[in-house]
Write a structure and sequence with these properties.
The protein is of the alpha/beta class. The chain has helices at residues 13-24, 46-56, 74-77, 82-91, 125-134, 154-161, 202-209, 287-302, 319-331, and strands spanning 7-9, 29-31, 38-42, 65-67, 96-101, 116-120, 138-139, 167-169, 181-184, 193-196, 243-246, 261-267, 277-282, 308-312. The strands form three sheets. The chain has an eight-stranded mixed beta sheet, sandwiched between helices. It has a four-stranded parallel beta sheet with strand order 11-14-12-13. The chain has a two-stranded parallel sheet with strand order 1-8.
């Protein structure tokens, strides 16, 4: 086992082969996806998966997403409903996770003891190549301590874990910067539910399956107390610095005598506010750019010595729904 400062692998085929070998041997490696960096392990190796939970401090009631190199591999792990073909053709590879009825080959540890498994085919070429070279299905939750802000760059993983995660594949900045959308398909297409918003909108998903998504929770898995999918706790993605939210376009209500305060806007403000430090997610308010920058800016400000952050919510359409979901969970007190 490597000891010392994390070793950064690069995009060379030789490095990717080494990463695949490490995963095949039961090691953990932080890998880039188009959403966020994941802490990857062989999903069928229970000892490796257990180490993922241990390193992250993740409770066993929170299931993991299993990443595949191709859609055809799903049938090894899960029962495949007809609706999956339509979703896979439209969105895979890409930032969409589906929850299906699992097969016995999937360890209960991966699924929090439940009868369903979350799977997706990532779009990041390095992630898919590593899956191919490893010969494994990869469980890969976000590569950060449980509940903290998700990592969108390799250095975020190093900052969070140090030598606890000694192997990191540096694939640059993540394209989306927000975790995948999650759709519950375990009860068939007519009872499909959006469990977590993401870069793919509910309207796009509905267009692909040909009908509206059902509202309401999917329910916990077989009375285990487990979550039906990851990222659904009321408090999650949270920096240590308190966050105060405000509606899109509203000015912040500042604290008097409350120390340094950061004000975050969707777009660069035309007029500067006095007495505060201002930041923005996009020069022109582009929501895709804003989503890509949310977690990176949250990490930067969390290390900046601020007493509080005032964040502007996005318009509640398209990817703005996913941005607001992450911000509301990050701002939750419990």
């Amino acid at each position: 086992m490597f000891r010392g400062a994390p070793l950064f692998f690069r995009e060379t085929e030789a490095d990717l082969i080494r990463v695949g070998k490490l995963l095949r041997e039961g090691e953990l490696v932080a890998l880039p996806t188009e959403t966020v960096y994941g802490l990857a392990a062989d999903a069928l190796n229970e000892n490796a998966v257990r180490r993922v939970f241990s390193v992250k401090g993740r409770p066993f009631l929170d299931p993991l997403i299993v990443h595949l190199a191709a859609a055809e591999a799903v049938e090894v792990l899960a029962e495949v409903p007809p609706a999956l073909e339509r979703l896979a053709e439209r969105f895979w590879p890409g930032p969409l996770t589906v929850v299906l009825r699992k097969k016995a080959v999937v360890p209960d540890l991966v699924t929090a003891g439940g009868g369903t498994v979350a799977v997706r085919v990532p779009a990041h070429r390095l992630m898919r190549r590593v899956i191919e070279l490893s010969g494994c299905f990869l469980a890969a939750p976000s590569a950060n301590p449980f509940g903290y802000v998700s990592p969108t760059r390799a250095e975020h993983v190093r900052e969070s874990f140090g030598e606890k995660v000694p192997w990191i594949l540096d694939g640059g900045e993540c394209e989306h910067g927000l975790e995948s959308a999650i759709v519950w398909l375990a009860d068939g297409a007519k009872r499909a539910r959006l469990l977590r918003s993401g870069p793919i909108s509910s309207e796009e998903i509905e267009a692909a399956i040909g009908h509206r998504l059902v509202s309401g929770d999917a329910g916990n898995a077989e009375k285990t107390g487990a979550q039906p999918a990851p990222g659904m706790l009321s408090r999650h993605y949270s920096p240590f610095t308190p966050i105060v939210l405000r509606e899109a376009g509203a000015k912040p209500t500042l604290r008097v005598g409350g120390g340094r305060q950061a004000v975050v806007w969707l777009r660069r403000p035309q007029v500067a506010m006095a007495g505060v430090e201002e930041f923005w997610l996009s020069e022109n308010g582009d929501l895709r750019e804003a989503g890509r920058n949310v977690f990176a800016l949250a990490r930067r400000l969390d290390a900046g010595g601020f007493a509080v952050m005032h964040w502007e919510l996005a318009p509640g359409t398209g990817i703005g729904v996913a941005i607001n979901d992450r911000l509301r969970r990050a701002a939750a007190r419990a």
